[in-house]
């Protein structure tokens, strides 16, 4: 019975989640339920609480109230590394790569979190350590191929063009083999062609790894083409949720967001 209840639980759920910064209510009464393999968009004007929501779910911020559940298990207040180990990976608005490491090493470092090998094992050349290292490298190389970065594997991350760096961030997040990938404005700074390719990449990752994706995005074409469901925030509150078509048709959403300059 307990196991049935757990397996019926959504992949991610927030309940009554809230965060205030010295009296400023950045997020309140937040609730969302995301299924396995679902691609969900979070949209809203600047300052509406989108990044705060990501920081709360991934452990970078502690909520003022409310709870976050992953497959029915409370992950509220856990540190980011533990949330990641339990299956949630994220990217940030700006790139946060290891600039001096190679492209492959960036992804490998993340993959090794998933396939850890003890230092004594590595130093002694134990077979288990070699197997873990090999598994991590296989994961890393597969992700570089999927993200179209295999030919840049040995370049320093710092030398990558901007768009490639953004894809490397995604490869690195995926290397921890999450059940949920959270992308914070992945199309920011990309041109139309790169944005189109990004949407295809996110779809491929979902198909290949059965990962669910939550994406914060201002690029409406990306949101409308990619997302199966969209939640709209304004001033820290959910003001709409539905299919992209439903959200686009909502008068309340249009007034709060789509008609504003932010949607341009
Ligand atoms: N660490 C912080 N300390 C104080 N205030 C903060 C902090 N982080 C966010 N805020 C405030 O909380 C509100 C929500 O910010 P948040 O970054 O979540 O919005 P957003 O929807 O992600 O905006 P954007 O689209 O500009 O990234 C804003 O008023 C912001 O100034």
From TrEMBL:
Q: Which SMART domains match?
A: AAA
Q: Give residue ranges for domain ABC transporter.
A: 12-260
Q: Is Transport found in the keyword set? A: yes
Checking InterPro entries in the record gives: AAA+_ATPase (IPR003593), ABC_AA/LPS_Transport (IPR051120), ABC_transporter-like_ATP-bd (IPR003439), BCA_ABC_TP_C (IPR032823), P-loop_NTPase (IPR027417)
The protein's UniProt keywords, in alphabetical order, are: ATP-binding, Nucleotide-binding, Plasmid, Transport
Top-level division of the source organism's lineage: Bacteria
Q: A Pfam family for this UniProt protein?
A: ABC_tran
Q: Which GO terms describe its molecular function?
A: ATP binding; ATP hydrolysis activity
Q: Could you state one GO cellular component term attached to this entry?
A: plasma membrane
Q: Which PANTHER family match?
A: CONSERVED COMPONENT OF ABC TRANSPORTER FOR NATURAL AMINO ACIDS, CONSERVED COMPONENT OF ABC TRANSPORTER FOR NATURAL AMINO ACIDS-RELATED
State the name under which the record lists this protein.
Answer: ABC transporter ATP-binding protein
- From what organism does this protein derive? Deinococcus psychrotolerans
The upper taxonomy is: Bacteria, Thermotogati, Deinococcota, Deinococci, Deinococcales
């Amino acid at each position: 019975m307990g196991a049935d209840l757990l397996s019926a639980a959504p992949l991610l759920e927030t309940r009554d989640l809230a965060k205030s910064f010295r009296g400023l209510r950045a997020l309140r009464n937040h609730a969302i339920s995301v299924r396995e393999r679902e691609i969900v968009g979070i949209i809203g004007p600047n300052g509406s609480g989108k990044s705060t929501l990501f920081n709360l779910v991934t452990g970078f911020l502690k909520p003022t109230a409310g709870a976050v559940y992953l497959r029915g298990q409370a992950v509220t207040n856990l540190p980011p590394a533990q949330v990641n180990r339990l299956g949630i990976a994220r990217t940030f608005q700006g790139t946060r790569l290891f600039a001096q490491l190679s492209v492959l090493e960036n992804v490998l470092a993340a993959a090794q979190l998933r396939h850890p090998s003890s230092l004594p094992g590595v130093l002694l050349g134990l077979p288990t350590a070699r197997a873990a290292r090999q598994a991590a490298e296989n994961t890393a190389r597969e992700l570089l191929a999927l993200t179209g970065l295999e030919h840049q594997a040995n370049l320093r991350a710092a030398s990558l063009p901007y768009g490639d760096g953004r894809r490397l961030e995604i490869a690195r997040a995926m290397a921890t083999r999450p059940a949920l990938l959270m992308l914070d404005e992945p199309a920011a700074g990309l041109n139309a062609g790169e944005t189109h390719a990004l949407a295809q990449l996110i779809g491929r990752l979902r198909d290949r790894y059965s990962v669910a994706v939550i994406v914060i995005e201002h690029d409406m074409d990306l949101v409308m083409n990619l997302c199966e469901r969209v939640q709209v925030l304004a001033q820290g509150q959910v003001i709409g949720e539905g299919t992209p078509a439903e959200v686009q048709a909502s008068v309340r959403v249009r007034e709060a967001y789509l008609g504003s300059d932010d949607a341009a």
